[in-house]
UniProtKB/TrEMBL annotation:
Pfam families reported in the protein's UniProt record: PIN
Magnesium in keyword set: yes
Source organism of the structure: freshwater metagenome
Family annotation (InterPro entries): PIN-like_dom_sf (IPR029060), PIN_dom (IPR002716), PIN_Pae0151-like (IPR044153), TypeII_TA_RNase_PINc/VapC (IPR051619)
Protein name according to UniProt: Unannotated protein
CDD domains reported in the protein's UniProt record: PIN_Pae0151-like
Chain ranges of the PIN domain: 5-126
Keyword Magnesium: yes
Record's keyword terms, sorted: Magnesium
Length: 134
């Protein structure tokens, strides 16, 4: 049975930037080919921002940065428009940024599992949806 997985930008960015993290993720049950991945369209900006920071810090070359971005854009992630998520995201304003709330709201909508590398987000999100830190 397919389980809906909401993948946040911390996981998506590490997946395309770090070979060791990619191997680690691929060993996880969530990447076994039986799950559909979802994210708000915001993920594309967040991953691009993470790649940009690494490029400016000279931790990746320009070629590596553009290859990582291309790989991210080809990833089998079903992207969802932000507008339908905004009202519910604002309701979570006390402890979660609007950016992070968009992932939580999507996880709620699909009754799916949010996977993140952000332990702080996971602690707050677990009150609203299923979440796993990878």
């Amino acid at each position: 049975m397919t389980k809906e997985i909401i993948i946040d930008a911390s996981v998506a960015a590490d997946f395309v930037i770090s070979v060791s993290k990619r191997r680690e993720f691929m060993a996880c049950e969530f990447f076994d080919g039986t799950h559909d991945f979802h994210a708000p369209t915001l993920i594309d900006f967040e991953v691009t921002s993470a790649i940009r920071k690494l490029l400016l810090a000279r931790r990746v070359s320009e070629d590596e940065a553009f290859m990582a971005l291309e790989e991210h854009l080809k990833a089998p992630i079903l992207r969802h428009a932000a507008a339908p998520l905004l009202t519910r995201a604002l309701r979570l304003r006390e402890n979660i940024s609007a950016y992070d709330a968009s992932y939580v709201v999507l996880a709620q909508a699909f009754e799916g599992l949010l996977i993140t590398r952000d332990a702080r987000l996971a602690r707050v999100a677990e009150r609203h949806c299923a979440v796993v830190v990878v």
